[in-house]
Amino acid sequence: MTEVKWQMLLKSAFETEEVEIGCEDCHEALDMYAELLLEKADPAAAMPAVEQHLKQCQCCAGELEALLIMINEAVLGNEASPTVGG
Fold it and tell me: What is the C-alpha to C-alpha distance for residues 84 and 68, in angstroms, rounded to an integer?
């Protein structure tokens, strides 16, 4: 195992919490987490277990990033498209 992988493994072990959630629970909470981010709220304070999971799970962090991109694209698309009947 490379030194970088060892460092990542140790970092992950030290960041574990007493209560943690899995990927399924994280996925269920991503919409709300994304909404808080977009509202400039503090999702880490409101949803610490999700925040912790996202720090440790690159897959779920990637899902959040994709969700935020889709939301931003939808918002930009709505602003650029003409309104119906207008």
Answer: 26
Q: Cα(4)–Cα(85) distance, rounded to whole angstroms?
A: 58
Whole-angstrom Cα distance, residue 67 to residue 65?
5
| pLDDT given for residue 75 in this prediction | 84
* Residue carrying structure tokens 């925040």: 51
Rounded to two decimals, the pTM is 0.69
Angle at 1 between CA 14 and CA 21, to 5 degrees: 35
The separation between CA 82 and the C-alpha centre of its own chain, rounded to angstroms, equals: 31
Higher model confidence: residue 76 or residue 34? 34
